Structure prediction request, 122 residues.
Amino acid sequence: QVQLVESGGGLVQAGGSLRLSCAASGRTFSSYAMGWLRQAPGKEREFVAAITRGGTYTDHTDSVKGRFTISRDNAKNTVYLQMNSLKPEDTAVYYCAADAAYSAIDLRASYWGQGTQVTVSS
Prediction:
């Protein structure tokens, strides 16, 4: 069982930056692939980024490549999402997700945080 708690969301102007954090409970954090998904009002939840257990491989959806970076610190049981050059279309609730399988870091993920709101004003 993994419990995930996100933080770091907020209101920012277009072009600004935020760093989201997701703290995980338990002593087996390094056993899980981690990721971020987001859900904008009236839209389906979508994949943003994922990272393997050891952090050696990452993937980002095309719309955030070059602007967002996922990383993790296994010693701190935390995964991060650094978001730069934010755009109004990045406005959404951002969810942290965990699964033993890297390929399942999408809507099939086994564990979810409660979400953190990111609002980008134009």
